[in-house]
């Protein structure tokens, strides 16, 4: 009886949990963004000093509670050898945030290639996608439209099979801006 009541109580009080992958090349700013988001949604969270954040190696997990929803973010390492592990997480994720370093023009094609192999994976069909042109606080960054059209070359029809929004962002400052959806 106790177990039954305990189970019922747990079921009524537990939050709905969604898993979100944060992907992109190493140094794109994924961990910094996650730290900033955790601080924004949980003011009591003691965030890491941005100076002390190093490129993600392996997996970095962050949880954000909004109302009765829990968002669990998996920030995956973006180094070439770690990209091979991304697809292990695809079948369980509910959304993807793909981060591009808008201050790094020379690596845009590399980011496009990583994006292409991700977006063609059948496990991700229909999974909502947020594209971020990050580091907008630097001088003369790539604009969100540049990033958007570059990634669209990697597979516009695949991108179009889902809800997709592209935004400019700065994980350092926490600022961002809305722009029109990529596939509408
Ligand atoms: P990653 O998790 O994608 O590998 P990190 O990237 O979050 O570790 O960030 C990599 C570097 O980029 C860090 O600098 C970090 O401070 C910087 N960075 C992250 N986001 C922004 C941003 O929005 N604007 C600027 N200007 N820099 C950013 P270091 O010097 O520690 O390597």
Automatic annotation (TrEMBL):
Keywords: GTP-binding, Magnesium, Metal-binding, Nucleotide-binding
Binding site residues for GTP: 24-31, 78, 134-137
Annotated positions binding Mg(2+): 31, 56
GO biological process, one term: Golgi to plasma membrane protein transport
Any one GO molecular-function label of the UniProt entry: GTP binding
Keyword Nucleotide-binding belongs to the record: yes
CDD domains found in the cross-reference section: Arfrp1
Cellular component aspect of the GO annotation: Golgi apparatus
Subunit structure comment from the entry: Interacts with SYS1.
Stored NCBIfam families: small_GTP
Function statement: Trans-Golgi-associated GTPase that regulates protein sorting. Controls the targeting of ARL1 and its effector to the trans-Golgi. Required for the lipidation of chylomicrons in the intestine and required for VLDL lipidation in the liver.
Name listed for the protein in its UniProt record: ADP-ribosylation factor-related protein 1
Lineage: Eukaryota, Metazoa, Ecdysozoa, Tardigrada, Eutardigrada
């Amino acid at each position: 009886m106790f177990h039954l009541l305990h189970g019922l109580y747990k079921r009524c009080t537990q939050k709905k949990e969604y898993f979100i992958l944060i992907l992109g090349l190493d140094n794109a700013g994924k961990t910094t963004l996650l730290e900033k988001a955790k601080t924004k949604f949980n003011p009591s969270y003691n965030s890491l000093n941005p100076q002390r954040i190093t490129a993600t190696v392996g997996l970095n997990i962050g949880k954000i509670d909004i109302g009765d929803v829990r968002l669990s973010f998996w920030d995956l390492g973006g180094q070439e050898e770690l990209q091979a592990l991304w697809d292990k997480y695809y079948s369980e994720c509910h959304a993807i945030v793909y981060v591009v370093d808008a201050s790094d023009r020379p690596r845009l094609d590399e980011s496009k290639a990583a994006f292409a192999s991700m977006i063609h994976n059948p496990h991700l069909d229909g999974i909502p996608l947020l594209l971020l042109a990050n580091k907008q606080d630097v001088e003369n960054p790539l604009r969100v439209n540049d990033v958007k059209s570059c990634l669209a070359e990697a597979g516009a029809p695949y991108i179009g099979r889902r809800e997709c929004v592209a935004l400019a962002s700065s994980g350092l400052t926490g600022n961002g801006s809305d722009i029109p959806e990529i596939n509408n």
